[in-house]
């Protein structure tokens, strides 16, 4: 029989904001201890799970126990938690004593602060135990290791070959590790992991490949980073629409979506009258609830006389960025009988993509006539409609 023992008696609260021991801190909504325990409960070779909790942690552990027992297939694997002590080593010893009644053949000892242990790491530790009395998951050291003087100067560099970082689980033949722990307790010796206890007792312990994901969660920043990995910043998608019309006047070209298109007329307007970019500017502003083009760039302001409308679009992009929004795609439809848009479509998409800072495939430009109907059909002007889709970060609950 193979048992797992999870050490969850630590009382360190700093990582979890100073309120609860870190193993009860949620990572993306699931307490670290639940995450760690689930991996062992779901592992087909682990037959029983012993959790060691901190003195006084009973009320905190109750919902965890409930959550673990609720996993129907594995509920029967969970043993009643035992209460540990102030040191990790003593807590593990108490857990081993509690498992003694079951007399498992092998035991895998794991820290609750390593919630991302994977089934294959567990398998490698178990596999090694058929040939060795002890085996631990570990990762080779990849950083160069320096020894420092008390003043912070480098006093030497270690050869990192053959150096490993110990992880958990650490697996042992049960009787061997229980005897080693009893011996260490009797001798009053303190060690930082169970392999050290075994080594001190003369037990041969081998290393098996751990996993870089099997990190120990130590600081509040570790918790925040791990949470983001599971649950990136929540965002929602929003859409805005814009519409604009400009009438024809005398001239020989029209500005449409940032491109000067030769024509029998020009469009009239205070700026360069780029009806496509005006509609698009409004669509972007609309998507972030950011007002409209007339509010930000009033036609009464002389500084916009003859201005290239890319300035307005860039202004909307700046507001989008300030809101933390990201542009997903935009789509512009030009409504006119003439000029023909198709020959300029690619240049228009490129011009828009450049101002928006997005790939051209996220920019649509298309055109339609109105079958000769209405003011567009009578060649009195050009209309444009646009939509813009953005994602915006959701405000934390209650921030509104
Ligand atoms: Mg306009």
Please characterize this protein's 3D structure.
The chain is α/β, with parallel strands linked by helices and 400 residues long. Helices cover 31% and strands 27% of the residues. It contains 12 helices and 18 strands. The chain has helices spanning 32-41, 58-70, 88-99, 119-129, 174-187, 194-200, 220-230, 275-287, 293-296, 310-322, 345-356, 374-377, and strands spanning 2-8, 26-27, 30-31, 48-53, 82-83, 106-111, 134-140, 146-148, 154-157, 164-173, 205-209, 235-249, 253-256, 259-262, 266-267, 326-335, 363-368, 381-393. The strands form 5 sheets. The protein has a 7-stranded mixed sheet, sandwiched between helices. Strands 15-12-18-16-17 form a 5-stranded mixed sheet. A two-stranded antiparallel sheet has the order 2-3. Strand 8 and strand 9 form a beta hairpin. Helix 3 packs across helix 5, helix 5 packs across helix 6 and helix 8 (275-287) runs parallel beside helix 10 (310-322). The longest helix has 14 residues, at 174-187. The model has no long low-confidence stretch (mean pLDDT 93). Residues 244, 246, 269, 275, 278 line the site of magnesium ion.
């Amino acid at each position: 029989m193979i048992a797992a023992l999870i050490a969850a008696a630590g009382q360190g609260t700093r990582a979890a904001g100073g309120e609860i021991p870190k193993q009860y801190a949620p990572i993306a909504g699931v307490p670290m201890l639940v995450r760690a325990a689930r991996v062992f409960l779901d592992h087909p070779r682990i037959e029983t799970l012993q959790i060691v909790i901190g003195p006084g942690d009973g009320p905190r552990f109750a919902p965890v126990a409930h959550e673990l027992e609720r996993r129907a297939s594995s509920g029967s694997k969970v043993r009643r938690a035992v209460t540990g002590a102030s040191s990790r080593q003593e807590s593990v010893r108490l857990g081993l004593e509690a498992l003694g009644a079951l007399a498992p053949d092998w035991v895998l000892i794991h820290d609750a602060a390593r919630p991302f242990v994977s089934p294959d790491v567990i398998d490698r530790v178990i596999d090694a135990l058929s040939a060795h009395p002890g085996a631990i998951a570990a990762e080779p050291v990849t950083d160069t290791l320096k020894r420092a003087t008390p003043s912070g100067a480098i006093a030497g560099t270690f050869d990192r070959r053959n150096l490993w970082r110990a992880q958990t689980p650490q697996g042992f033949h049960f009787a061997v590790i229980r005897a080693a722990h009893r011996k260490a307790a009797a001798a009053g010796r303190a060690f930082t992991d169970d392999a050290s206890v075994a080594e001190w007792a003369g037990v041969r312990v081998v290393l098996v490949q751990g996993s870089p994901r099997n990190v120990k969660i130590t600081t509040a920043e570790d918790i925040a980073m791990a949470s983001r990995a599971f649950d990136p910043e929540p965002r929602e998608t929003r859409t805005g629409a814009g519409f604009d019309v400009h009438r024809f006047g005398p001239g020989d070209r029209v500005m449409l979506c940032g491109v000067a298109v030769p024509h029998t007329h020009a469009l009239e307007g205070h700026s360069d009258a780029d009806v496509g970019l005006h509609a698009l500017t409004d669509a972007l502003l609309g998507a972030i609830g950011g007002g409209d083009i007339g509010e930000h760039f009033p036609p009464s302001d002389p500084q916009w006389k003859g201005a290239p409308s890319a300035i307005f679009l860039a202004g909307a992009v700046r507001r989008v960025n300030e809101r933390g929004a990201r542009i997903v795609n935009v789509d512009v439809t030009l409504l006119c009988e003439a000029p023909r848009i198709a020959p300029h479509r690619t240049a228009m998409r490129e011009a828009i993509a450049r101002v928006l800072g997005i790939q051209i495939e996220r920019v649509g430009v298309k055109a339609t006539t109105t079958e000769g109907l209405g003011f567009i059909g009578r060649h009195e002007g050009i209309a444009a409609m646009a939509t813009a889709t953005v994602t915006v970060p959701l405000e934390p609950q209650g921030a509104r």
